[in-house]
UniProtKB/TrEMBL annotation:
Belongs to the peptidase M1 family. Residues 228-443 form the Peptidase M1 membrane alanine aminopeptidase domain. This is Aminopeptidase N. Its cofactor is Zn(2+).
């Protein structure tokens, strides 16, 4: 294998493509061993007579012929190398025809055209289309596609983008179909699917009265598992109509599930292709979390039809233009679905649960990224491999940046900004700046003389800002002064840049409230309006706000609703946090106060453990947790979040030297103490939260199941003998996967090892035919408390394990390397040896997936010294491996060169 050369691409170097390619016709003769693709391109020079060569991208293709205006070229008339086909003698307009071959069955990268389960699928974003045919593989070249598919009767279903316009049988007995997509699109949105598939469909009438056909395709035999996905699709369609006035623009919209897929799903125009994990569900095989994820990913891909497809990206640096915005839209969709039909208070709690879950993800995945070697602004300035920039920063922080604009403009203002964005840019390939400009037009109308100039820094600067809060209360004057100060040190590549010192303040919408010492909300006067929550717009390094008529010394409730992706610094006392945790009227800030208490408790236990002292939990903490557990006014879903201990990843962010074994000991100790000390309350919760009757994947019963399973875990962790019986009974009698898996997890992590082994064996026997269920079986073991490198190596030898299926690799290898810190980080380095082996093995098959595993070592320099050295050595071993992909090479070299 050849080592791929690494070239850095810079945003500042953007140049428009010299040609338009308004029409593309593709003819596929599908064959797993060698598929022939005939491509006919209508090309037109953008600047007539400029003489620029037509340079087309290609990868792993066999060229058969090239013709221009019907005349085949001989080899001297074009230039061909590993990645480019260049024609330098074209006039101002020409028809270029290229015949080439690719090898779908041998394609283990899952980019371009590949075979999975005997069927054909494509994945073109970001740069996969070049593996199908030579083309201008960049998002600002938009074309109308006409696609002809020919295949034998082994492939009865033949799908592509847009509308089916012809279907016939060829003289040789093969089928031929023709699809036409009326909307010009970049090639990354091209898709085809061919094979033996079953489907479920429904027809709905859109807001303007058009009847459209919605279909969900999947493997034969899985038809009972596509109902929820199709219902979710209908809800998504309705929601985009009502919340954003955006209608489906096609007569037919298809979703196809595939078992082998690099990520979650892909928004190809009219033909979304999904990882089967985000489509297939029934009560027996899918958990509440799976149902929720399906609804959210179905929504996400559907919403891309407007935010991504109708308006697309000019270049890949603008990725967050579509991803940040679409994640924001799917988050709002899920929140609205969770709150629908509830009264005001219950709806607020339901929305807070969704917000909490999203912030937990942000903190566990994005905050570490933003302080590490891969830190980048949501609109990166450079990359070596764009596949490495489908990150938590571009997606999740990108969504936060959109959400801040929503906060600044208000719901109606944001909607007006979206309308303006589509009015200006429908049908175009644009930039993040174009989006902000549309929003700014509304903001400036709302606030004459103000603009989003400072706000735009969220797009160009990386790092998580810290906001330090000072509060002064002047009792005689009944005046409260709040001072905010922000700072954000250079991170990652910023440290090497010439203007590292020049980072400037951000525009931060900072939502605050004040609580009195009896736990009542105080009213704030902001711009002549009385409000419980004021949004302070911090735009400089330091600013001060004064609130009059505050009757008593308040406790501040800060960053309500997580109004900005920042870290708050304020010296609350434990008593103040307990007060907020019991009474804050903002449900997000209330949750946050409890999390801060738990963080302090766990970090204190870590210190005790590190100094060899006996571990002890302070009674104040137990009392705060008891208050939450027994607060029946809180719905179960919210209580389950409030009582969840912060994850190891979130806690690691708070440590100067990350010590995974100590963290694990501390969290385990606290969980067991809570289990013992609050046992009667946990038992009561367990009994009250049963959900008899048929399974419903709705927020209310799902909240009960979450809290009940949490009770089970805590009781078992505390050594409760009765709970062990409860868990076994729940496992045996479960009518749904949430309960079955919840019980099994409690037993595997905290139960008798023999019972756990028995249950794991039974589970495998029962579900071995269902790959998504077996993924859960692998994941649970990969992250189990007692799992070591040896356990994982043993599981890799299991006949059901394969590295070639990304879901399976993620279930075992990734879960162990990314979510089992105590198993991975052992001082003898055996965990790191395993990581090196797996990164290299995966890299030979699938570089995109390998690069994600490679990121497990990103923050090596922040670990305790005994681990730092072997982690570094492991990274060096990967970097020095001959034949490394560009994907993995970028990750490991940045980890070594840009470490914190
Ligand atoms: N655009 C897709 C989404 O966010 C994700 C995606 C990008 C993807 N590249 C991919 C999916 C490669 C699979 C493989 O919805
Ligand atoms: Zn997306």
């Amino acid at each position: 294998m050849r080592t791929e050369t690494s070239v850095t691409v810079y945003r500042k170097d953007y140049l428009p493509y010299p040609f338009d390619i308004p029409e593309v016709s593709l003819v596929f003769d599908l064959d797993p061993e060698a598929t022939t693709v005939r491509s006919r391109l209508a090309v037109r020079r953008r600047t007539p007579g400029d003489g620029a060569p037509l340079e087309l991208d290609g990868s792993d293709l066999e060229l058969i012929s090239v013709s221009v205006d019907g005349r085949e070229l001989d080899k001297e008339a074009y230039r061909l190398n590993e990645s480019t086909l260049a024609l330098s003698t074209l006039g101002d307009a020409a028809t270029v025809e290229i015949v080439s071959r690719c090898r779908p069955a041998a394609n283990s990268t899952l980019m371009g055209l590949y075979v999975s389960g005997g069927n054909f699928f494509t994945q073109c974003e970001a740069e996969g289309f070049r593996r199908i045919t030579w083309f201008a593989d960049r998002p600002d070249v938009m074309s109308r596609y006409r696609v002809t598919l020919r295949a034998t009767s082994e492939y009865p279903v033949l799908l592509s983008n847009g509308n089916l316009i012809e279907s016939r049988t060829l003289p040789d007995g093969r089928a031929e179909v023709v699809w036409e997509d009326p909307f010009p699109k970049p090639c990354y949105l091209f898709a085809l699917v061919a094979g033996r598939l079953t489907h479920r469909e429904t027809r709905v009438t859109t807001a303007s009265g058009r009847e459209v056909l919605l279909q969900v395709y999947s493997d034969p035999g899985s038809e009972s598992k596509t109902g929820w996905a199709l219902e979710s699709l209908v809800r998504a369609l309705r929601w985009d109509e009502s919340r954003f006035g955006l209608e489906l623009d096609l007569d037919r919209f298809m979703v196809v599930a595939v078992r082998d897929f690099n990520m979650g799903a892909m928004e190809n125009k009219g033909l979304n292709i999904f990882n089967a994990a985000y489509v297939l569900a029934n009560a027996d095989t899918a958990t509440d979390a799976n149902y929720e994820a399906i609804e959210s990913v179905i929504g996400h891909e559907y919403f891309h039809n407007w935010t991504g497809n109708r308006v697309t990206c000019r270049d890949w640096f603008q990725l967050s233009l579509k991803e940040g915005l679409t994640v924001f839209r799917d988050q709002e969709f899920s929140a609205d679905m969770m709150a629908s039909g509830l009264d005001t208070a219950a709806a607020a709690s339901a929305r807070a649960v969704k917000r909490i879950d999203d912030v937990v993800t942000l903190r566990a995945a994005q905050f570490p990224e933003d302080g590490g070697p891969m830190a980048h602004p949501i609109r990166p300035e450079s990359y070596q491999e764009i596949g490495n920039f489908y990150t938590a920063t571009v997606y999740e922080k990108g969504a936060e940046v959109i959400r801040m604009q929503h906060t600044l403009l208000g719901d109606a203002g944001f909607r007006a900004g979206m309308d303006e964005y589509f009015r200006r840019h429908d049908g175009q390939a644009v930039t993040c700046d174009d989006f902000v400009a549309a929003m700014e037009s509304v903001y400036t109308r709302q606030h004459p003389g103000r603009d989003l100039g400072i706000f735009r820094r969220w797009y160009s600067q990386a790092g998580t800002p810290r906001v330090a809060v000072e509060l002064h209360y002047d009792a005689p004057a009944r005046r409260c002064t709040i001072r905010l100060a922000q700072r954000c040190a250079p991170v990652g590549v910023e440290k090497n840049s010439p203007n590292a010192a020049a980072k400037k303040p951000f525009h931060i919408p900072f939502a605050v409230g004040l609580m009195d010492r009896d736990g009542r909300a105080l009213m704030l006067n902001q711009d002549g309006r009385q409000t419980e929550t004021a949004v302070l717009e911090l735009t400089t390094e330091q600013q001060e706000w004064v609130f009059e008529d505050i009757p008593s010394a308040p406790v501040p409730s800060l960053l309500r609703g997580f109004s900005a992706p920042v870290i708050v610094e304020y010296p609350w006392s434990d008593e103040e946090l307990a007060l907020l945790s019991a009474h804050d009227t903002d449900p997000f800030a209330r949750w946050e106060a409890g999390q801060e208490l738990a963080t302090r408790e766990i970090l204190a236990l870590v210190s005790l453990h590190q100094t060899g002292a006996a571990l002890r939990v302070r009674p104040g903490f137990i009392a705060a947790w008891r208050a939450l557990l027994e607060d029946a006014a809180l719905d179960e879903a919210y209580r389950a979040r409030a009582l969840a201990l912060p994850s190891e990843k979130t806690l690691a962010e708070r440590m100067s030297a990350i010590d995974p074994p100590a963290l694990a000991v501390a969290r385990d100790f606290l969980r067991a103490e809570l289990g013992r000390d609050l046992a009667p309350a946990w038992r009561q919760v367990f009994e009250e939260c049963q959900t008899p009757g048929p399974y419903r994947p709705a927020p209310e019963p799902a909240g009960k199941r979450a809290l009940k399973n949490m009770a089970l875990t805590h009781l078992l962790a505390g050594g409760d003998a009765q709970a062990s019986e409860w868990a076994l009974a729940q496992y045996k009698q479960a009518t749904n996967m949430t309960d079955r898996l919840g019980a099994m997890a409690a037993l595997v992590n905290h139960g008798d090892p023999d019972i756990a082994t028995g249950v794991l064996g039974e589970f495998y026997e029962q579900w071995q035919q269902d790959p998504l269920v077996i993924d859960k079986w692998f994941s649970l073991q990969a992250t189990a408390r007692s799992t070591t490198v040896q356990t994982v190596r043993g599981l890799m030898a299991h006949p059901a394990f394969t590295l070639r299926n990304p879901n399976r690799a993620r279930a075992l290898v990734f879960q162990f390397c990314l979510n089992n810190a105590r198993g991975l980080h052992v001082p003898d380095g055996s965990g790191y040896d395993y990581w090196v082996e797996q990164v290299l093995a995966l890299d030979a098959l699938n570089p995109e997936v390998a690069a994600r595993l490679a990121r497990a070592m990103d923050n090596w320099s922040r670990f305790v010294p005994v681990l730092r050295a072997p982690m570094r050595a492991a990274l060096e071993r990967v970097r020095n491996h001959p034949g490394l992909s560009r994907n993995v090479s970028e990750i490991v070299s940045k980890a070594l060169e840009l470490a914190a």
